[in-house]
Amino acid sequence: MSEPVQRSLPGHIAAALAAAGGAADSADQPWQGRTLGAERKYHNFEDDDGATDAGYAAALAALSARTGDEAAVVHSLASARVFVPILAQVARAHVVSNGLASDKESDMALVTLTAPDGRRALPVFTSTENLTRWNPQARPVAVYAPRAALSAVAEEAQLMVVDPAAPQTFVLRRPAVWALARQQRWLPSYADPQIASALAGSMAALGHPALLGIRAEPGAGIVSADHEGNTSPGGGAGPELRVQLTLAPGLDQDALNALIGELELLWSRNEYFAESVDSVEVRLQAAASTDRPAR
Prior knowledge:
It contains nine helices and twelve strands. It has 295 residues and is of the alpha+beta class. The protein has two domains: 54-91 and 99-181, 3-Layer(aba) Sandwich (Trna Endonuclease, Chain: A, domain 1); 189-286, GMP Synthetase, Chain A, domain 3 (2-Layer Sandwich), CATH 3.30.300.
């Protein structure tokens, strides 16, 4: 039997192996006193403990205690870290000889939900505990909340749901999602002076003698409830804006429908109104004998 041929390593590999375990690296820089990776962070959340952001928790507690409002909760998310859930999704599969399906390729996919009214919603979580409670198979991806809002816009989701299945869930409606994605301060439509001005302008433009007053109020749909049934004045899915119309008596149903239809057409043509209002409910109020048309 012939002797095996001895092969020599390339010079650069032999030199690297010879230097391995030495006192210095290949550039003759000493290893002593150096810590690998400690000089810089590789992402923003290396020291994250997975807990809920303190600012968000405080704003949500104030909303529940009715000492805060939902605008403050949305504002607290501007600097908060959240977790976006990612789930494995089969991209290609084939059937093996025993008749069972076998995954050939799989992708990691962003999760979206369908709200009761049919709209698309992006779930996000303030803690790993809340995400695991919702779906133990979901992989948490840490991002700042404005980045999650951008993902919601990209996925054509009209809602962003914070902590679904948690003791307390908070919903950001479309205008709040857009404001967060743009890193702008959000003002609810029912508290926005420009919306009040748009409503007054629509009343003036219509000039209907039976329309005596118009004003914006919080809609019933902004109310949310925790797992114990306690309600908060914010965080619901909508409708968010209630438009209160004060009407003179005497309108029949057809005339009333025509009046409301003309108002809604004026609102839809107002660019600021259309962008800032997620959903509207109209409430009618009969004028008292002392009521006079607004000037």
